[in-house]
Amino acid sequence: MKQLLDSFLPYISAGGVLTSLGILLYNLFVTKGLGKYFEEKGKNIATKEDIGEITKIVESIKGELSKELENHKAVLSLKNQNRFSLQSAQREALIDYNKKVAAYMYAVLHVGMWKFTTENYHEIDNEIKDSYERKYQAELSEAHLKLFAEDVGLSETINLLSKEISKLFWFNHSHFQQLKHEFLLYEIQLKRTEIDVSAVIESLYENREKIREELYQKQQEQTPIILQNYFNLSNLIKLNLKESF
């Protein structure tokens, strides 16, 4: 009996395999009639026929145990692959978000209205379009990252940074529109007869400087807040990346 049980040791190893295979072994003893066989034959000397029958039963049980063990290994392997794939997707989402939110943030922080003149003010529309595209890409990446973000601190920091950048984004947007309006007004006034051109130009540049000064003050106010939030976010992203390996 000891030799028989020893033959099953490779199949009843650690963890959950012990329980599931133990139950299977018990059932096979019952269904295959091995227990009853030993009860009736225990007092007799085993014949060649007996040994052959026992060998068949043992091999049958070993085959069942081997199948159960392979199935268990396959399930564990699939779980490990899924976990690895999820961690890989999370790392990619963290890296992509950091790249896109940084591009959006620095575009908002480094707006330069000084470059627009009466010769190229039509390019203001391109500036607005570009800022909207960066905003859209950052928000899309943020939404994707939040599918994986289980860190409450990370989610809160993302929300804070997004909120502060948006404040400056919309302030920039409104002042771009004001600047564009001033240039359009300048063109309309130039088409009028008996107009003092120098006065129109002077008024244009005074208004442009006023708009630029308001924007500069807002940038000075928002920049340290935004950069502090981004610094906090960067640290949390680094921490999450380390934990994902």
Which features characterize this protein?
2 domains; 81% helix; mainly alpha; 7 helices; 245 residues; 0% strand; rod-shaped
Question: What does this protein structure show overall?
Answer:
- This protein folds into 2 domains: 2-79, no CATH class; 87-243, no CATH class.
- 81% of the residues lie in helices and 0% in strands.
- It contains 7 helices and no strands.
- The chain has helices spanning 2-6, 16-31, 34-41, 48-109, 124-145, 152-190, 197-243.
- Helix 4 runs parallel beside helix 6, helix 4 (48-109) runs antiparallel to helix 7 and helix 5 (124-145) packs antiparallel against helix 6 (152-190).
- 17% of the residues are buried.
**Main β-sheet description:** none
Structural class based on helices, strands and sheet pairing: mainly alpha
Which ranges are low-confidence, i.e. pLDDT below 50, for 5 or more consecutive residues? 11-19
Rg from C-alpha positions?
37 Å
- Count the E strands: 0
User: Between the first and last Cα atoms, what is the distance in angstroms?
Assistant: 48 Å
Mean pLDDT: 78
List the secondary-structure elements in sequence, H or E: HHHHHHH
Strand content bin: under 5%
* Overall helicity: over 70%
Quick gist of this model?
This protein is mostly helical and about 240 residues long. It is about 80% helix and about 0% strand. It folds into two domains: about 1-80, no CATH class; about 85-245, no CATH class.
